[in-house]
Structure formats: C-alpha cells, structure tokens
Amino acid sequence: MPPAPSTPRPLPDLSAEELGTWLAAQGFKASHAPRVLRNLLEVHGDESKEHPGMRLPAELSQQLQSAFPTAAASLAMRQVSEDGTAKLLLRLQDGRTVESVLMPDFHPDRAAGCISSQVGCAMGCDFCATTQTGFERNLTSGEIVEQFIHLRREARAAGRTLRTIVFMGMGEPMLNLKNVLAAVQRIAAPTLGAFGWRQITISTVGIVPGIDELREADLGVHLALSLHAPDDATRADLLPMGKRFDVQDVLAAVDRYQASSGRITTIQYCLLDGVNDSLAQARDLSRLLEGRRMHVNLLRYNATGLSLRGRTYAPSSLEQTEAFLTELRAHGTVAHLRRARGPDIDAACGQLRKREAAVSSVTP
Q1: Would you please indicate which residues are annotated as catalytic (active-site) residues?
Q2: By the 8 A CB rule, do 227 and 282 touch?
Q3: I want to staple 242 with a disulfide (CB 3.0 to 4.6 A). Which of 99, 116, 119, 236 is the partner?
C-alpha cells in the first residue's frame, strides 16, 4: 500500500508548481520553488550540507524543515563490484524496497545510472529476477527522483560525475509514465536538476500506447526497446507482453517516436543460450531492422536462477556471442556488445531485493 494520505510528502515528490503554491500560501515568494528544488537535486546527499532551504531566508528554511521530509527513501543495502559497479537498495517510506545501479564509464570521471520505475514488475519476463517477486505498486515521482539523488551522491563519492541515466531497473516505465515523466521534468529541466533531456533513456518491453504517449510528451529523451527476439513466437515466450503487441506493431510505434524526436532508438537484446542466439535469428533481426536508424545493444545474461516457468536460462557462450555480433554487422546492422556489469554481486535487476527479502524472512 502507498503511504497514508496524512504522511507529509517529501520534497523530491513536489513539482515546482506545487511547491510554489505552498510557498505562496505561507506568505513567501512562489519564485523560490525552483531554487529550493534545484538545491535539493544538486547538493542533497552531501552530508556536510544543510537542508536544501539553506540558501533561503532563515524563516522559510525553518518552515521547509518542519513541513517536508527532505528524502523519499533511505539506503537499506549497498553492494560494490570489483569493476566499480554499485548496487543500491533503497527503503521507501512504506517499508518497500527498490533498486538503483551506478555503473562506471570508460571515462574515469564519468558514470551512468540505472533507475527503477515500479516496486516489482507485472510484465512476467521469464528470465528476469524482478518479475519473480511480482508487482506491488508504482513509484511516486519523488521516489524516482530520490534514486537520482542517491546515484549522484554515489558517483561523487567515487570521484565521478553522473552523466546519463536509464530507466531500465525494476518495473515497466510505460505503465507508470505519469510519474516517470514528472520525475524526468524535475531531473532534466534547466531551471531544476539541469541534467539534460538527451542524457536520459526510457526503456520499454513494447507497450505501444506508452511509446505514443512518450512521443506526445515531446521531451526529447532517448527510447530503448527490449526486443530479445526477432519473431513473435520466441518473443512472446520470453516476454508475455509480446502476445498483446507483436514485433511489427511495436517497431511501428518506435518508428513514430523516432520520426518525432529525431533520436536513434536502442534495441536491447539479451542473448540466452539456445533460445535466441542462433545465426539465423541474427539474420532475422538484421532484416527486421533494415532501413531503420536503430542500433542493437547485445547484453550478456546475468543468471537469476529458476524462472517463473521453471526454466534455467544460461548466457550464450563468448564464441556464440561474438558470432551473433559478427553476423549482425555482416548484414549492415549497427550493433555493440555491452560489457557485463557487477558479475560478482547481485547486479541483475531484482537480485539484491530478493536477497534482502530472504535475509529478512529468516532473521528473528
């Protein structure tokens, strides 16, 4: 259940308009609102700093402190891989948990963040750990913004700058698009987080109405499609949503988004041994994308154990992975192999949350 209505909303959950209305009701200038939120997004998380109202009149700062919690979540667990990947488990105000990941970039001073949009997931993708715990609720816009704040803090602590974020964590962003877009506005807008629209990618398993709604929002963010198979039968077996929206319908929606935004779409393709990694499937994928300005991001599968359907998936061998990549490129498809991240920690989506829940269930 979401927090009770009487629970004060934390500052990260407020839009500039909402905070401005509150300020005006308290007799302060509504124009202070962007300043408060900008300060929250820029310096909140640095424990040497004060409340984000510190640059404001003392009376206003005091009222902000008493009226609003400054955080929508707290750090419950943290894992750091030998490769520098940091997995954060955040505890929300209602006790539920959600995951975020910070990934070092090739540039030693940069990092990328992965953000969740829901507590759990209802998509039922058979090879995903998140779906095994089911769907609990949508995240509020503040809980999404809070992940950004924690990731920016984590990056700074590692001597890096958070440069890009992707909505590829727990949940399906298109099924919580209202709150995702509200959070993106706060994070990216020049007068607020000033992170930049082009630095943000929103991923989907192929929710056609959501892709069209994102296009109509006209924010200029990037889109990523989790395809994972070039044919409807294989894809629907892996991703149940494939039974509702077939490959051609999904790609048509992506085409519409690209035509409107001018952004090149990333096709996410997780290689599973003996399932979707044959050379014939590589050729089918190339034919499917022929004439489209899209690039394929091949992913190494991070094993999550027994699936919902009782299967055990394995990553494709390095030899087969290279062969698949070579076949794509031979047929003119722009494709890259993404490095595996955090193989020595619970880096796959949903794994750390499952571990924490298992520990909690046996701890007296």
Answers
A1: 99, 349
A2: no
A3: 236
